[in-house]
Every structure is written in C-alpha cells, then in structure tokens.
C-alpha cells in the first residue's frame, strides 16, 4: 500500500493498552499501513489477560511492528507528520511500553506527540471504513475490557459518557460463560459459533439494569455480572440433575440477552437525545447476534448504524492513528513530552 | 556521541558521552514516574550538551535486573531511538553499571551490589576489584537479603538494599542508584577495547506470577 502526496497529515499510531501491540500509518482518513501482534495465545491457559505477560510481549513486539507498518505503508518513520499513542485507559504496564516508544519517536523525529484516549480511538476507527463521523453520534463500545455508551459531539475533543458497565465488561462475561460451557478462551468467537445452532429464546436469562427502578438510576448503564452468574447456576443445575447441557441453546440465549440489553439502551439513547446515528465498536462487535439485532432495531427506529470491519473493531494501531489524524487536521496543540500512561483515563479526556 | 540511560532502579538517569568524557548527565531519583520523566530528561540532557538526537552514534541502556515496569520504559525507549536514528543499541547489566561507579569512586576491595527488587527481595551481584576494574563473580540474582550467604552479606554493599535492609546488609557504600554517566564511561571503554556488550534485552530473573487456570469449581454449593 502506498498513498499519493496530499495535504492530509500522515500520522503514526501506537496501541498497547491490553494484549495487542498495534502500529499503523493513517493519511487523513485513509489507512495506509497496519501491523498487529497479539499475545492472546500466551494468556489462554490463565483464562484471561495477565498484565505482566502482556507487557513483556509488547516490549518484544514494538520494534517489529514499527518496522512492519512502515514497510507496509511504504513510508519511512521520518515521513510522518505526527505520532499518536494510546495513553489510557488500559493496563498500566502495557500502556507504558507504547507511550515510552511513542515519546522516543517524537523526540528523535522531532514530530508532535498526541496522547489519545483508547475509547475515543475505538469510536474513531470507523472513519477509516466509512468516512467522517456524523456528529453528534451515539457510540456503543463493547469489548473484553470496556462497555460504554457515549455521545460524541466532536471525536477529537468532545466525548461524553452516558453510561458504562457497573461490574463486568460484556467481553468478560463471554469468557466466563465459555468456561462453564467447556469452550476455549477467549470465549466470544466460540460462543458465537455454538450459538448458531441454538435457540436464542430457549432460556430466559436476566437483562441487567432494565427494571423500572434500575432504569431510573442506571438508565444507560450496563451490568453483566448477574447474567453471568445466572448462566453458571443454570448450567450447574443441569449438571447436578445428570442432564445434558444444551450448549447451543445456552450460548444462543446468553448472547441474545447481552445483545438485547446492549442494543435496547443504545437505541433508547439515540431516541431520547434525538440523535439519528449510532456507531458500534470494540471486539464484541464481532458477535453475530449483536450485529443483527443492532441492524434490526436501528432500522425500526430510523437510526443510521455504522459498524466497521472486524479488524478495526478489535484493538489496533489504526484507530489510534485515525484519532491522532483528526486532532492534527483540527489544528489541536500536541501533548507534552511528559505525557503519562493513565490506566483510568476518563473518556471525556479525548486527548491526554 | 553515546547516549546512556538506565531505569532499573528508582532513578531515571541519562548521560551523553563524547568518547573522552561525560559531557552532560541528569538524574531524577526517588521516583516511580519513569514513563513521564525519561524522554523529557533525554531532551534536556541533549540540550545541555548542545546536541540534537541525530548527532548520536549509539545508545546504551541498563537492562536490569530491576522492577519490570520501569525497566521496560528504558529498554523500549532505547530500542525505539536506535530504530528511529539508525544507530546501534547496547545493553549493560544495571548492577554492573552500579559496580563500575563504585569502583570509579575508589572502592578497592571485593563488594556487593544489592538493589530493590520489591516483595522483600533484592537484586544482587558480587564483584572482585582488580587494577583494571571490577569483575562480577556471583549473580545477578534475586533473593531475600537475610537469605544471602553470610560471606556476601558481610561485604561492603552498594545500592538501595542497604537502606531498605540495614540489618541484613549492614556495610553501606554511598552509591545508591545507577549513574548513566558511569554506564556511558563503561560502554565507551568496552567498545574501544572491542569487548562485546549485551543485547538490549531485559534481565527479568523472575517469571510472571500468574497461576494457570484450575479446574472449574461450582459456584452453587
């Protein structure tokens, strides 16, 4: 891949907030080089991401990914107009590897540095697939570490949180349910596959924070801990009774419960705020039922739905470069070279 | 022009060596903010030396052992600078760097280096002193200070281990943290003598403490 000379900025993006080391080049809103290394296989036997294992893998992958992205883009590091890096939220030790590398690049290449918010970057990823974001837009972000409902008035500077999970992220619930069903880690793809042969209405699993009282206090918040426990108890009751566990039906009904509450609240947010665009992102967006239910409900409500390709839904450097590019195009001042890694960076801080 | 950095102790230390002498050096001690401080300190040291990053011909970095998070900040910074500037990156055991500084300060007999490994342990190594310099005889390793053999604990000791565990390590030398200047001087000499240095690869000495998932236990009794 290579791009013609344009007035649009060429931005290098670095992502290292969890278990993916991503480096990418974006020209304006066009992805021109994208490299990704994952340590997911190293975490499998632990049943979840081990921060120290992830941090070690980032250190080993950072230079190879910089080289690969550079080769794929057909650009030297020197060619970039700015460096963007995820400065939070995420795993502290993992974030530090990317932030330190980005700062070294900014210093050596004498380029501006932009510390960007991981959640806003997820929302921004879709500009690479579908062009500039409609603003305002409601954004639903669902992954192994995050579940957030956002309203985005300006992707580079104005993101507000409407709600988020009060316990587990949706993706965590997938991992835990997969485990009880004897499916491998990470659970999402396996549950999705198993669910294809199941009946999503077979078992009425609970919908967290949807009672009338909860809708007053936690209107746009999510909860998946109770759902997870309900699934585990249901499966164990079957096992104790010596009955076979209908894995496909459990997977389909669980997935349906997750997709139902995610899309129900997202569409409600659009309707109540009078916003007719919904953007979905994050790794759980790969889930078939979530995509289908979102399409159906948005169509019914007259909401335009945007979902990027899966590769851009999971963590990657491209989304970070895309958000950095938006900041450069708006003429925002760069971050300080003393930029920290902030594991709990609030989503309202689009730039750190 | 050699840039030297070390983040294996609680100090963030940076120096530039011109082949003859250390021309600039800065350190921030007593900090856990390695990520924030390292690159601005490199910028400031280069400025003090009147240099731009492009004037550098090599980078040297302490590869530990040291607390992992800070250690990685130094190593990934050095590696990235090497890539961006197209210059070689050399690794040095951080305990050796502290030992060279101790020798340079006039230590004439065998000594121990013990730095904070957290979790009530120290990273340690023991050194013989010769006319030419120091030679590591034991370590690097990680241990509870009281569990080190008596003949090691009885040695004069450099590093923060003496501050943290004065009863186990009673003979404190004044060198507490790595000095990038001493590291740079050692690397410059080693390169001149044609000696090989380490890869810029961390000396972790400990595995990640994660436990593989056990069999599932029911949540309902």
UniProtKB/TrEMBL annotation, chain A:
Molecular function terms from GO: tRNA N(6)-L-threonylcarbamoyladenine synthase activity
Cofactor info, note text: Binds 1 Fe(2+) ion per subunit.
Family, according to the entry, reads as follows: Belongs to the KAE1 / TsaD family.
Q: What does this protein do?
A: Required for the formation of a threonylcarbamoyl group on adenosine at position 37 (t(6)A37) in tRNAs that read codons beginning with adenine. Is involved in the transfer of the threonylcarbamoyl moiety of threonylcarbamoyl-AMP (TC-AMP) to the N6 group of A37, together with TsaE and TsaB. TsaD likely plays a direct catalytic role in this reaction.
The reaction(s) catalysed by this protein are:
L-threonylcarbamoyladenylate + adenosine(37) in tRNA = N(6)-L-threonylcarbamoyladenosine(37) in tRNA + AMP + H(+)
Keywords attached to this Swiss-Prot or TrEMBL record, sorted alphabetically, are: Acyltransferase, Cytoplasm, Iron, Metal-binding, Transferase, tRNA processing
Binding positions (Fe cation): 118, 122, 315
Sections of the chain in a coiled coil: none
Q: Which InterPro entries match?
A: ATPase_NBD, Gcp-like_dom, KAE1/TsaD, Peptidase_M22_CS, TsaD
Q: Which domain of life is it from?
A: Bacteria
PROSITE patterns for this protein: GLYCOPROTEASE (PS01016)
**Database matches in Gene3D superfamilies:** 3.30.420.40
PANTHER family per the UniProt record, alphabetical: TRNA N6-ADENOSINE THREONYLCARBAMOYLTRANSFERASE (PTHR11735), TRNA N6-ADENOSINE THREONYLCARBAMOYLTRANSFERASE, MITOCHONDRIAL (PTHR11735:SF6)
Tell where it localizes: Cytoplasm
Q: What is the lineage of its organism?
A: Bacteria, Bacillati, Actinomycetota, Actinomycetes, Micrococcales
Q: Which cofactor does it need?
A: Fe(2+)
* Name of the protein in question: tRNA N6-adenosine threonylcarbamoyltransferase
Report the EC number(s), separated by commas if there are several.
Answer: 2.3.1.234
Query: What is the species listed in this Swiss-Prot or TrEMBL entry?
Result: Luteipulveratus flavus
Positions that bind substrate: 141-145, 175, 188, 192, 287
UniProtKB/TrEMBL annotation, chain B:
Q: Which InterPro entries match?
A: ATPase_NBD (IPR043129), Gcp-like_dom (IPR000905), T6A_TsaB (IPR022496)
Pfam families hit by this protein: TsaD
Keywords assigned: Acyltransferase, Transferase
Q: What is its EC number?
A: 2.3.1.234
EC main group: transferase
Among SUPFAM superfamilies, the record links this protein to: Actin-like ATPase domain
Q: Name one GO molecular function term.
A: tRNA N(6)-L-threonylcarbamoyladenine synthase activity
Instruction: Show where the Gcp-like domain sits.
Output: 28-150
| Annotated protein name in UniProt | tRNA (Adenosine(37)-N6)-threonylcarbamoyltransferase complex dimerization subunit type 1 TsaB
Q: Which organism is it from?
A: Luteipulveratus flavus
Gene designation: tsaB
């Amino acid at each position: 891949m290579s791009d013609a000379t344009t007035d649009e900025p060429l931005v290098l993006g670095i992502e290292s907030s969890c278990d993916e080391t991503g480096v990418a080049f974006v020209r304006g809103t066009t992805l021109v080089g994208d490299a990704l290394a994952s340590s997911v296989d190293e975490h499998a036997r632990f049943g979840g991401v081990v921060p120290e294992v992830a941090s070690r893998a980032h250190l080993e992958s950072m230079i190879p990914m910089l080289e690969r992205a550079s080769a794929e883009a057909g650009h030297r590091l020197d060619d970039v107009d700015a460096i963007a890096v995820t400065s939070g939220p995420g795993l502290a030790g993992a974030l530090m590897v990317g932030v330190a590398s980005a700062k070294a690049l900014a210093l050596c290449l004498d380029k501006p540095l932009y510390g960007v918010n991981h959640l806003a970057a997820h929302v921004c990823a879709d500009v690479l697939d579908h062009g500039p974001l409609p603003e305002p837009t409601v954004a639903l972000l669902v992954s192994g570490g995050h579940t957030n409902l956002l309203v985005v008035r300006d992707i580079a500077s104005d993101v507000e949180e409407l709600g988020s999970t009060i316990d587990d992220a949706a993706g965590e619930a997938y991992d835990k349910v997969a485990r009880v069903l004897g499916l491998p880690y990470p659970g999402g793809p396996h549950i999705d596959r198993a669910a294809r042969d199941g009946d999503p209405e077979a078992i009425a699993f609970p919908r967290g924070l949807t009672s009338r009282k909860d809708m007053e206090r936690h209107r746009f918040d999510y909860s998946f801990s109770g759902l997870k426990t309900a699934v585990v108890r249901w499966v164990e009751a079957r096992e104790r009774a010596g009955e076979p566990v209908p894995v496909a039906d459990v997977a389909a009904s669980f997935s349906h419960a997750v997709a139902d509450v995610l899309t129900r609240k997202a569409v409600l947010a659009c309707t109540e705020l009078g916003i007719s665009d919904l953007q979905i992102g994050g790794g759980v967006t790969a889930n078939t039922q979530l995509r289908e239910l979102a399409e159906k409900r948005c169509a019914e409500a007259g909401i335009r739905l945007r979902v990027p390709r899966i590769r851009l839904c999971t963590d990657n450097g491209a989304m970070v470069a895309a958000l950095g590019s938006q900041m450069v195009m708006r003429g925002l001042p760069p971050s300080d070279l003393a930029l920290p890694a902030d594991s709990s960076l609030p989503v309202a801080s689009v730039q750190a | 022009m050699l840039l030297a950095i070390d983040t294996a102790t609680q100090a963030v230390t940076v120096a530039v060596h011109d082949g003859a002498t250390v021309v600039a050096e800065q350190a921030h001690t007593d900090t856990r903010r390695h990520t924030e401080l390292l690159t601005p300190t490199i910028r400031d040291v280069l400025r003090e030396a009147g240099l731009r990053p492009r004037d550098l011909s090599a980078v040297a970095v302490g590869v530990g052992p040291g607390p992992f998070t800070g250690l990685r900040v130094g190593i990934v910074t050095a590696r990235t600078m090497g890539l961006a500037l197209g210059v070689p990156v050399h690794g040095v055991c951080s305990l050796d760097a502290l030992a060279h500084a101790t020798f340079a300060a006039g230590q004439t007999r065998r000594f121990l280096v013990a730095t904070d490994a957290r979790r009530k342990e120290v990273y340690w190594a023991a050194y013989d002193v010769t006319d030419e310099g120091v030679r590591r005889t034991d370590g690097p390793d990680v241990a509870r200070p009281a569990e080190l053999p008596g003949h090691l604990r009885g040695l004069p000791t450099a590093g923060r281990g003496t501050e943290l565990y004065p009863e186990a390590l009673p003979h404190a030398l004044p060198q507490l943290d790595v000095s990038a200047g001493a590291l740079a001087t050692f690397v410059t000499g080693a390169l001149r003598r044609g000696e090989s240095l380490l890869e810029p690869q961390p000396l972790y000495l400990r595995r990640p403490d994660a436990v593989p998932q056990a069999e599932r236990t029911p949540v309902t009794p």
